[in-house]
Amino acid sequence: MKKWKALSPQTRSDFITYGIVIAAFIVLRLLSAFGMLSNSLTGLLVPLCAYIIMAVSLNLTVGVLGELSLGHAGFMSVGAFSGVIACAGMESFIPNPIIRLLIAVVIGGVLAGITGFLIGIPVLRLRGDYLAIVTLAFGEIIKNIINCLYIGIDGAGLHISLVSSAELGLNSGRVVINGPVGAVGVQKISTFTFSFVLVMITLIVVLNIMRSRTGRAIMAVRDNRIAAESVGISITKYKMIAFITSAVLAGAAGVLFAMNYTSLSSSKFDFNQSILILVFVVLGGLGNIRGSIIATVILYLLPEILRPIQDYRMLIYSIVLIIVMLTTNSEKAKLYIGKIKARLTKKNAKGGEQGE
Amino acid sequence: MTFLNYLINGISLGSVYAIIALGYTMVYGIAKMLNFAHGDVIMVGAYISFIITSKMGLPAIVSVLAAVVVCTLLGIFIERLAYKPLRNATSLAVLITAIGVSYFLQNSALLIWGSDPKSFNSIVDFDSIKLFDGQLVITAEAIVTVCACIIIMIALTIFTGHTKMGKAMRAVSEDKGAAQLMGINVNSTISMTFAIGSALAAIAGVLLCSAYPTLLPTTGSMPGIKAFTAAVFGGIGSIPGAMIGGILLGVIEVFASAYISDKLSNAIVFGVLIIVLLVKPTGLLGRKINEKV
User: Fold this and answer.
1) CB neighbours of residue B145 within 10 Å
2) Domain-embedded: residue A328
3) Set of chain A residues whose Cβ sits within 8 Å of the Cβ of B90
4) Do A321 and B103 touch (CB under 8 A)?
5) For chain B, is the Cβ count within 10 Å smaller at the N or the C terminus?
């Protein structure tokens, strides 16, 4: 206990975050061991983990680096489809699905990272809303290109075409990515335990970046670009570090996501998907990793909980979203909440403001 | 001749984008917010027009007027309810609220009008013009769209340049605080901007669905994103910029799908946008912002 108190508040907060995630995993495992989880809920666990990784990694770009990205699903898409191809290629000589998934995650992450680097060179020169629109544009371009992509695999290796699956000239093998239909015949090899490990790795990477010298430099760039530059921080370098890390993690999440479905279309990773993840991040709190996780769990499960009222669930979702944004950001609501808080505890006299 | 046909198609599609982009750019200029719900106002306008012509059997002009009125009221209502309380909040908070509004409009439309596609009857009822023995076809929709676009452009230029309200709008977009000190009612000016933007969205919705007659609750989202791109392309906040951006985007899109690849046309459009922004980071007609330390 003494040791615990000696830690800095930040470190303590990080360990609480790890603790929450581990505890949640153990509880879910126990519940499923006793058969208390419904089938539909069990099916949601892997995508939920993928979304958590997406939200945490996007928080690195939007919350920590302070640049609005509207194309995060694009990286997920790159990861997902390269992962599918990699897995299909390894099927013949790596029988163990977990090892195959692991290699696919690495390949997906690296390719998404390279994409992130290529996109980052032009994008990070821009600022504010212009940067946002270019990330949106890249997301749409990635979606569009994968939509026209036909990839087949046989004994001779990969066959790529931009026209049709007949153009591939396959003799024996099979089509892996079939244009607008997307990835077909994917083996479902993602498991909840593997997803949990990946979530933990993501958390360790992101939280450690944030608490390191690099993270402080990134936040300095966010808070005041000119001041940061004048004390010798290389803006481009730190922006790049944050952007690429975020892309790599999104790519890994994409592989995890793709390997949970038998087929997957590239239109799944569109603008709305990017926005969905952005909503998780903003509602969880910018720069607040634990908040991102909690917001993802609640918002991802909310439509599922509302399933009995099928027709109205997305309507309710949108109303909840608007009300939450209004109550947490409007000045009147803030004053009102502040009054209530002040009445409840004297401690809060300092105010919960953490700046922008 | 096919080239000319494509050019006319492109200008016609671009005019629709331009009308939508005007709404985006005016709202951005004055409220400094990306109004992602704008695309869904287009969809609402189109549905209103659809109900009035196809279900009630009233003439097309009535349906257009009704769509304009409903969308104007909707725009003011959305601004009052969702955006006004967030006047001083961070831009991200406003953005997410706008996305919430967008979801709300789409899902309300889904509940009211159902998910089955409606086939929209064109509001124009005269014939296409055929030139050079039918080699060059100018559709009636294209003529109406381009004319509407030119009229709107002229009207807006006169409005922002010569009327009291228009000058107030420019003042508010320049400096909100100073405008208020000069006795301009900032809130009503912003409401007015939303009203005009939404009215334009209604017109755009009707024109869009006359040319591409499938109507769905999600009809507005892709043209919305494209028009937003057009606004950025021309320099967001600039009215002539939105016009040029919209028309260029339409022409590029039609040419790309005709001459390069139908399936890759969106990728090419966005690719051109990226190149333009790299050369001119604030768009074609955008003002350069100097940063003060």
Assistant:
1) 28
2) no
3) 329, 356
4) yes
5) C
Residues of B in Cβ contact (< 8 Å) with A145: 264, 267
CB contact under 8 A, A137 and B229: yes
Q: Which amino acid is at A76?
A: M
Distance from CA of A142 to the nearest CA of B (A): 8
Amino acid at the residue A241? I
Low-confidence ranges of chain A (pLDDT < 70): 1-2, 155-156, 165, 167-172, 346-356
pTM for this entry? 0.85
In a domain, B145, yes or no: yes
d(CA B180, CA A84): 58
Q: Please spell the DSSP secondary structure of B259-293, one letter per residue.
A: II-STTHHHHHHHHHHHHHHHSTT-SSPPPPPPP-
Average pLDDT, integer, range B196-208? 90
B273 touching chain A per CB within 8 A: yes
Measured between alpha carbons, how far is B273 from A184 in angstroms, rounded to an integer?
A: 32
- pLDDT at A346 (0 to 100): 63
Kindly state whether residue A317 falls inside one of the protein's structural domains. Answer: no
Residue A324 inside a domain? The answer is: no
ipTM of the complex: 0.82
Residue of B nearest to A141 (CA): B267
Residue B131 located in a structural domain:
yes
> Is the model's pLDDT at B206 over the cut of 60?
yes
Domain count, chain B: 1
Instruction: Give strand pairing partners of A213.
Output: none
Please provide the DSSP assignment of A85-117 as one string: HHHHHHTTT---HHHHHHHHHHHHHHHHHHHHH
**Does any domain span residue B12?**
yes
Q: What range does the domain containing B26 cover?
A: 2-220
**Number of domains chain A is built from:** 1
Most confident of A285-294, B123-132, B254-263: A285-294
A121 near B CB under 8 A: no
Tell me what pLDDT residue B211 has. Answer: 82
pLDDT at residue B124 tops 60: yes
- A322/B104 Cβ within 8 A: yes
- On whether residue B39 sits in a domain, the answer given is yes
Are residues A57 and A109 in contact, defined by beta-carbon separation less than 8 angstroms?
no
Is residue B89 within 8 angstroms of chain A, CB to CB? yes
- For residue A101, what are the domain limits? 13-270
For residue B205, pLDDT beyond 70: yes
